[in-house]
Amino acid sequence: MLADDQPLVRAGLRVLITDTADIEVAGEAGTGAEAVRIVRELGPDVVLMDVRMPGMDGIEATRRIMTGPGHTRVLVLTTFDDDEYVYGALRAGASGFLVKDMALDDILAAVRVVAAGDALIAPSVTRRLIARFTGRPDPAPPRLLPEGVTEREREVLRLIARGLTNGEIATRLFISVATVKAHVARLLAKLGARDRVQLVIAAYEAGLVSASA
């Protein structure tokens, strides 16, 4: 489903997606409240959610969708100037975020990734997001990680927060991709995280990443 208050944006995405064999646009919404209602009616697999919409914004709409029934997942649409709103949307349960000027193929790939149950974080946007929040003049005090998190897992978590893929982490730490996946699985369990997006948030809140990173 497409949720954006600009009809031209929705129309453009719909036209482009129509030519894609494995993705179908089930509905459109121009406000957050309308997005929540349509999700409950149609139960789409993925919502491409704009952040700034009249009335209920994309953050609150995401929160309501994620706490409601069904399996719908949310991908946030943003611009580089919307970092703070994106962070709020991720806290609300979004499975990732996209930049509106991304190539169509990248947007379609992101939809497929999230529909398959994974999360997507663009490394460049992740680094900007973390830098924005760790560089605030009044940062919140770090939250301690559970005692069971090992030093290796902390290292993996830090690299996840910097936007590295499993393959890149494996190369950096001189371990196999399978070992990285095992570390990620244990981090998800120990931190009670739903996906990779929540691991990034946990790393930020624990003070494992900084603006210089």
From TrEMBL:
Residues bearing the modification 4-aspartylphosphate: D50
The name this protein goes by in its record: DNA-binding NarL/FixJ family response regulator
Keyword set includes Methyltransferase: no
Single annotated GO MF: DNA binding
Boundaries of every HTH luxR-type domain copy: 142-207
Keyword DNA repair tagged: no
Keywords: DNA-binding, Phosphoprotein, Transcription, Transcription regulation
Source organism per UniProt: Sphaerisporangium krabiense
